[in-house]
Structures are given as structure tokens and as C-alpha cells.
Amino acid sequence: MELELHFACSGLKNVDVGSLTDSAAVVYLRSGYKSFKISGRGQYKFVGKTETITDNLNPVYVQSVVINYLFEEKQDIRIAVYQIDDLSPQASAEQKLIGVVDLHVHDIVTSPGGKIERPLVEYDQE
Which domain holds residue 46? Predict the structure, then answer.
């Protein structure tokens, strides 16, 4: 079953110099393991990203990310929000990580209305 995921942030930390944060959400998925134990889990794999929203600490991303939900497998999703300083695709590896949210895809599917809110775990890379 395909799930179309939409993302928004509120109260992002302003990590830009001279203006407000320019951000994008990047989605990673880890699946294919049979238990929640640390051992045996696979690596997160990139599945998609939103557009970059400039000068906004409360971005509502329009571009969604579609994932395949496999109810018979445990799947973890990681949403990472990055400060985007350079809008060229070649610069994506050099962007500053603002923070992440980790959860199980099952949590999204079983949440009321399919909507879930989680705090962003911030990373200070300075």
C-alpha cells in the first residue's frame, strides 16, 4: 500500500545568517527486519525530499513523499530537516542538519486521521 506523506514544521531554529532558515525535509526508510531489537536492523535508505522553503521558521511543504507501507514488516521512518544554503542539487551533501524525527510507519498509519506530530530532535553541529 502506498502512503503519501506531507510535512510541516513549526518553530524551527533559525540557523541562517542574515535571514530566516531555508529548509527542506528529507525522508529515509528502514524496513525488512522482524523485530524492534537493535541487532538485525537494516540501514536507512533515501526515499524522497520536499522542496526548499526559504526564509520561514514555520514551513508547510507542498511536495509530498510517497512510501510503500508493508504492514507485515516493521518499518522505521526518519524525517531529517536540513538548512539549505545552496539550492543546486550538487550541494545537498553539504547542507546543515537542523534535526530529525524517528518513528515507526505503523504509528502514522494508526494515528487519528493519519496525522502525527512529533518534536524535532535538534542537532547542533557547531
Answer: 2-122
